[in-house]
Design goal:
By secondary structure, this protein is an all-alpha fold. It is built from nine helices and no strands. It is globular and about 40 Å long.
Length: 125
Amino acid sequence: MTKVTSQEIAQFRSQLADDPSDMEALDLIEDCDGDLEDAAMTLAIRAGQQPERANAEWLDALARKWRAVICEQEYREDLLNTSPQKMMERLKAMPTFPKILATPVLIYVLKQGVNNFCEPLDSLK
């Protein structure tokens, strides 16, 4: 289980305050006592997805599916500075990405550590 603290939720609220869907996702994470995978699964079901795996595996698989986009160099520095706004906009602009899941996916990546998450791609360069 990936736990998001109330302080982290407050930080994300201040950074993402302009987007109601981000606020909805953060509210749900808070309602799930910071359990990121549980909140992501609920959001996925609301978005019409039918996750077939355990919560933790499913969120990890979704994040890995989008790793090439998330780890693009032009956004990486922002993520390393815990500033997800530009990457959030990028993901939401992609027609195949479930927009409501951008918040939990990026929080997941930040909690894993951006360099740690992107390392498999870096080793291919």
